[in-house]
Amino acid sequence: MAEELKLFRTWSSPYSLRVVHALKIKGLEYETIFEDLSSKSASLLQYNPVNKKVPVLVHNGKAICESLVILEYIDETWKQCPLLPRDPYEKAKARFWAKFGDEKLSSSIWNVLISQGKEQEEAIAAAVQNLKLIEEQLQEKKFFGGEKIGYLDIAFGWTANLISILEEIIDLKLVDEEKLPLLSAWMQNFSDDPVIKQCWPPRDKLVVKFQAMRESNLKTVLSQ
Amino acid sequence: MGNDELILLNYWPSMFGARVRIALEEKGLDYEYREEDLLNKSPLLLQMNPVHKKIPVLIHNGKPVCESNIIVQYIDEVWYDKAPLLPSDPYQKAQARFWADYIDKKLYDSGRKITFHKNKEEAEEGKKEVLEIFKVLEGALEEKPYFGGENFGYVDISLIGFYMWFHAYETCANFSIEAECPKLMAWVKRCLERKTVSKSLGDPKTVYEIVLKFRKKLGLD
């Protein structure tokens, strides 16, 4: 039977990008539907009525939502280029750190984006602490998955792109090559991987987008 | 799999800890239960979960597994030969994970608005949110006995621990979950008939007393 794969995404969503990475690593053909979140399509609302968000993967008419859930679905359905470790303990660790990335790490990075002055200094200290914890998981490996890109690399993938954009906007370094050498190297290796490289959204557009987010959030804080 | 050492670090009112207790019971596993005082966390807890310093933590042959839904999946994958908790079909599994994730992201925070409300408005807001979440979950349940269908499983395990907090929610925000969500309560009663569930859940009235004690301590009442 011909597989039908559709991915609902936006041009910038880092969560959607995870699914793109996984599909490309697995060598899967799929159709992309770009969504405008200010005007969601009827299809998106039909496939994800609960959260109404991207990404949504539709496989032979059946919808799977939530990027990390989609990653596991892809890995379980297509066995080539395995993404998750096979050992249950290693799997549990990977899931733990992916959750940490989505919760503690991403909110600490967000806090750096939307703050300034003393508050930003504190936000940076907290973010760097979290980044150090991530780096410890790398140990001496090239990727979190070992020799090849795996689930956790894909889960953390947004950092390889968005952190340098944040650094450009605030004109401060978060991932210092001296202080976080392994993470720094990972970001380079991940970004430069031939499969990953072709997927990055246009950098200049992302800078504009995040700059705007910073400005509107700072304005909100100041007006409180 | 012969001589596994299993230790569960928990705090009995935790709806998250309940998930792990139920999973261990469903698999018929022997384990050592250790109650934590969250105001005076044990060195073992701090050592085994240095990142979050939270319960539940399952220590399996000395190695820690943290985050309740991750622990439940771990238990299901290690002891795969009995009482499967997740479906084997990848699509059904994805649905189960989606709903467990939904419960995780929404219910605790909205429930907290009710129990630790600073004013009546916050309690009302929490109540509205919780009822909305319950309605969505009732929709997902459809006419099935359990979320996964005929068999008790991952999503049921993810949600049922919150039953310990229903009385507290109802009393703090003055409403009846039974009246508003009868289908959900029918599902609750069905789950409570399972010994694995009833022995893993603490008394809702005691949970409410604990809430009152904390409210006083935090100067909310």
UniProtKB/TrEMBL annotation, chain A:
Keywords tagged on the record: Transferase
Domain GST N-terminal span(s) in chain numbering: 3-82
EC number: 2.5.1.18
InterPro entries for this protein: Glutathione-S-Trfase_C-like (IPR010987), Glutathione-S-Trfase_C_sf (IPR036282), Glutathione_S-Trfase (IPR040079), Glutathione_S-Trfase_N (IPR004045), GST_C (IPR004046), GST_C_Tau (IPR045074), Omega/Tau-like (IPR045073), Thioredoxin-like_sf (IPR036249)
Full protein name: Probable glutathione S-transferase
Entry-linked PANTHER family: GLUTATHIONE S-TRANSFERASE, GST, SUPERFAMILY, GST DOMAIN CONTAINING, GLUTATHIONE TRANSFERASE
Coiled coil: none
Record flagged with keyword Nuclease: no
Family label: Belongs to the GST superfamily. HSP26 family.
Catalytic activity: RX + glutathione = an S-substituted glutathione + a halide anion + H(+)
Domain of life: Eukaryota
Organism expressing this protein natively: Abeliophyllum distichum
Domain GST C-terminal: from-to ranges: 87-216
MF annotations from Gene Ontology: glutathione transferase activity
From TrEMBL, chain B:
EC number per UniProt: 2.5.1.18
InterPro entries per record: Glutathione-S-Trfase_C-like, Glutathione-S-Trfase_C_sf, Glutathione_S-Trfase, Glutathione_S-Trfase_N, GST_C, GST_C_Tau, Omega/Tau-like, Thioredoxin-like_sf
Record field: catalytic activity: RX + glutathione = an S-substituted glutathione + a halide anion + H(+)
Record-annotated GST N-terminal domain positions: 4-83
Record keywords, A-Z: Transferase
First-tier enzyme category under EC: transferase
Domain GST C-terminal per the UniProt entry, residue ranges: 89-214
Lineage top rank: taxon: Eukaryota
An example Gene Ontology molecular-function term: glutathione transferase activity
PANTHER family: GLUTATHIONE S-TRANSFERASE U19, GLUTATHIONE S-TRANSFERASE, GST, SUPERFAMILY, GST DOMAIN CONTAINING
Homology family: Belongs to the GST superfamily.
Name of the molecule in the record: glutathione transferase
Provenance organism: Abeliophyllum distichum
